[in-house]
Amino acid sequence: EVQLVESGGGLVQAGGSLRLACKTSGFRFEDYVIAWFRQGAGTAREGVARIFIRSGNILYKDSAQGRFTVTSDNAEKTVFLQMENVQSGDTAVYFCAAYKATEEGGLFVTRSFSAFSFDHWGRGTQVTVST
After folding, report:
1. Rounded Cα distance, 21 and 96, in Å
2. Own/partner pairs for 59-62, CB < 8 Å, 24+ apart?
3. Per-residue pLDDT of the chain (131 residues; tens, 9 = 90+)
């Protein structure tokens, strides 16, 4: 059974930093694309960053570019989101999501970076930025 468990959320002052973790289990870690999404109150869920574990390829959405960093610990099957210089607009529930990349002719194909592409979701961790 695929499981994704987020941790590390909490209350942080504007300008501060926070590190979120997504601990995974139940699947072959390197075959998966794992992403961070977030959803603020009254807003749609939006992508933050995603990593394809096998290649290490990372994509960031504009809101994360330059402030957030995605890393993975393959031995621990965990993906991290390091958040720097957080702002009030970063207040949201942060979700970890995953799907298995498809192998075609020896190449791995990844899907578009949108919520619809992801098959498995964690329950989320709340990040609140105080000003």
Report:
1. 9
2. 59/113, 61/113
3. 999 999 999 999 999 999 999 999 999 999 999 999 999 999 999 999 999 999 999 999 998 889 999 999 999 999 999 999 999 999 999 999 999 999 888 888 999 999 999 999 999 999 999 99
